[in-house]
Amino acid sequence: MIPTPRLNRDGEAVWRRFKQHLELSDHFALLFIFNSDPRATNIFRERLADIYRVRVTRMRRFECADADELADQLLPKLLIPGILNLDAPYWVDLSQQSDESWHVARMNFLARLNEQRESLRRTLTRPLILVLPARERDQIKALVPDLWAIRDFTLNNTDGMLDALPTPVVSEAISIGSVGIEAAVEVPLSESERQLVAEWDRVRDDPEPERGILLAAESAIEVFLRKARFREAEKASRQALGIARGLVQTSGETPEALRDLSISLNRVGDIAQALSRWDDARAAFEESLALRRRLLKDVGETPEALRDLSISLDRI
Predict the structure, then answer these.
(1) Given CB 3.0 to 4.6 Å as the disulfide criterion, which of 58, 113, 284, 290 pairs with 268?
(2) CA dihedral defined by 8, 3, 132, 36, rounded to 10 degrees?
(3) Is 271 exposed, middle or buried (CB count within 10 Å of its CB: 0-12, 13-18, 19+)?
(4) Which residues contact 277 (CB under 8 A, 6 or more apart)?
(5) Are 220 and 197 a contacting pair, CB within 8 Å?
(6) 314: closest CA among 259, 253, 273, 277?
(7) Which helix (H) or strand (E) element contains residue 92?
(8) Contact 261, 299 (CB under 8 A)
(9) What letter would DSSP give residue 182?
(10) Please, which residues have CB within 8 angstroms of residue 280's CB and are 6 or more apart in sequence?
(11) Cβ atoms of 139 and 225 closer than 8 Å
(12) What is d(CA 54, CA 264) in angstroms, rounded to the nearest whole number?
């Protein structure tokens, strides 16, 4: 008989913190679980299902059989008000599929959620639990900084949370293209993605840059991150940072120019962190934090200034 996996002391402590966050959430909350041991993750899911099984409203689960379902089915349910009114936690497990098409679909799905985070908060009235591959954590954090900033709970990995039982472990084949710094096989860009990159290539060397170039850079960087092209993302982020510094010199230290510079610094830091260049990441984050403290002093405690400060503190 194969022993049933059980949480050890550390695992039980994490479970209690996770459960407490849910019990205290009577409104929208975002929880990340980065799955590295499906056995531990399954224990969390089954315990949570048991809690809500005896209630009128049960925990809802969403699992996709096809990568296209993320955009075609899940996104509308989460983002369009009135389609889904959650009164119990919603468990979305996107961690089991390891091929490149799923990796790209996950990145696109999360990027869309990042763009629509305010709609997400208005639409969902109960916690959303996103279960994602632990190996993609740094890339996800770099890709969706605003979504990351509003999370309520993060479990970075589920390793080391089980008692040492002789439970057979079945290893899953992991697509090389979905991990590491560069994909083993370069994933082709879609037509819309090629257009975004082409626009960045067209404007990046403009002798008289303007703020719109930074928006073109950000769009291209998001494309590169979704395709795991970290080197190209890093190059574009460095070029955008240079442009942002130049705009501060030419237009003066206006709040808008300084905020754009702080955003460019954070993007450089995000990518440096994804590349495990910790000193470079911290230097960029600290410079951005200094700018946001200055902006808070100059413009006052506006919601935007306070939010920006909290995001920079979170990165540090």
Answers:
(1) 284
(2) 70
(3) buried
(4) none
(5) yes
(6) 273
(7) strand 90-93
(8) no
(9) B
(10) 268, 269, 272
(11) yes
(12) 49
Q: Which residues of the chain have pLDDT under 50?
A: 1-2, 81-85, 166-185
Helices (H), the chain: 9-23, 38-53, 69, 75-79, 100-115, 117-123, 137-143, 145-149, 191-203, 211-226, 230-251, 255-274, 278-299, 303-315
What confidence score (pLDDT) does residue 58 get? 72
Q: How much is the pLDDT for 59?
A: 81
> What type of residue is 238?
R
Token pair listed for 35 = 């799955």
The closest of 115, 108, 106 to 134, measured between CA atoms, is: 106
How far does Cα 184 stand from its chain's mean position? 23
Look up the pTM and report it: 0.57
In the block, residue with structure tokens 């994602």: 132
Tell me which H or E stretch contains 30: strand 29-35
Q: According to the model, what pLDDT value does residue 288 have?
A: 94
